[in-house]
UniProtKB/TrEMBL annotation:
Keywords: TPR repeat. It comes from the Bacteria. TPR repeats lie at residues 70-103. PROSITE patterns: TPR (PS50005). This is Knr4/Smi1-like domain-containing protein. Pfam families: SUKH_6. Gene3D superfamilies: SMI1/KNR4-like, Tetratricopeptide repeat domain. It comes from Paenibacillus motobuensis. The lineage of its organism: Bacteria, Bacillati, Bacillota, Bacilli, Bacillales. Residues 163-301 form the Knr4/Smi1-like domain. InterPro entries: Knr4/Smi1-like_dom (IPR018958), Knr4/Smi1-like_sf (IPR037883), TPR-like_helical_dom_sf (IPR011990), TPR_rpt (IPR019734). Coiled coil: none annotated. Residues 117-128 have a biased composition (Basic and acidic residues). Residues 117-147 are annotated as: Disordered.
């Protein structure tokens, strides 16, 4: 019964994203007394803490028992992937797919590995790889060339989070208390945050800055690993709490003007509906200006500087 209570506690800690507490709890148990399930919990928590070397060490101690467990192969493959040991990762994800065919997260990692290894061997084919990745996504907004959407710069790295899984999306949504739009999720599965080439959006009325358009600095990815991600230390909750934004939804873009932001506004739809996209103008007492009916329309409406009248 005590062991059942421990497993239940570990499950609760995982749901609450208390990964450090999971590690501390299990590490108090002597290694020789940890069974397959406890070691699996420990490795998973280390993966979530980005302690991938340690995670691999733990998973390998139960490799024999894990050979027929698709979750063991998936979690080991995930650790190898983030260690950039792509061939080892490929082997584990392929085995996970054999044991549990059709799992979406497994197939996505296999696709990302194929892209990574292709980029390393044929860097000149980068645009073709991006195009192939787009073809597997349900997100293809009209009038938006996604192959040339993102700017690859040093500054953009502040926004680009690691590839996201469905499990991580659910965890982030639970923390935010809002269901993210499908178009946003699909876009982030291809390129998880960053700085677009087109950063201006026409407003139709002057803002406090005297312009009839706004400028965004970047788009937050789904995750916690980068400060400028939805649940990062400079993400949505940080901006809402520090700039006294109205509690209407989720910040998805910051702006060059400190405190200004673009948000998903869930007031018309409810927390699980399709939110509108709005601009919060800090200098006008956090005035809310509607930009678009939905995220996809917002992305389609972004313009490059040369296409926007000064």
């Amino acid at each position: 019964m005590m062991r059942d209570d421990l497993i239940a506690k570990l499950d609760e800690l995982h749901e609450a994203d208390e990964f450090e507490e999971i590690v501390n709890t299990i590490m108090e148990i002597p290694a020789e007394d940890r069974d397959y399930e406890l070691t699996s919990h420990l490795g998973r928590a280390m993966n979530n803490l980005e302690r991938y070397e340690e995670a691999v060490e733990q998973f390998l101690t139960i490799a024999e028992e894990g050979q027929d467990d698709p979750l063991w192969h998936y979690r080991t493959g995930l650790a190898y992937y983030y260690l950039e040991r792509y061939e080892d990762a490929r082997k584990e994800f392929q085995m996970a797919d054999r044991l549990d065919p059709g799992d979406e997260d497994t197939l996505e990692f296999l696709e990302w590995i194929a892209s990574k290894t292709a980029e390393e061997s044929t860097p000149e084919s980068h645009e073709e790889l991006e195009a192939e990745s787009e073809s597997h996504s349900s997100y293809s907004p009209q009038n938006t060339d996604m192959n040339n959407f993102w700017e690859d710069s040093e500054q953009a790295k502040e926004y680009v989070s690691k590839p996201v899984t469905d499990e991580q999306i659910s965890s982030v949504e639970e923390q935010l208390v809002f269901k993210l739009p499908a178009s946003y999720i699909n876009m982030m599965k291809i390129h998880n945050g960053g700085i677009p080439h087109a950063t201006r959006y026409p407003v139709g009325q002057p803002t406090s800055h005297g312009k009839d358009y706004i400028v965004i600095s970047g788009i937050f990815g789904i995750g916690r690993d980068k400060p400028k991600s939805l649940c990062g230390k400079l993400g949505s909750r940080h901006m809402i709490e520090n700039y006294n934004y109205p509690e209407i939804g989720v910040v998805i873009c910051d702006c060059p003007s400190a405190g200004d932001a673009v948000m998903l506004d869930y007031r018309p739809s409810g927390n699980d509906g399709e939110p509108e996209v709005v601009y919060v103008d800090r200098e006008s007492n956090n005035k809310i200006i509607k930009l678009a009916d939905n995220f996809e329309a917002f992305i389609q409406g972004l313009m490059k500087a040369e296409n926007t009248e000064e």
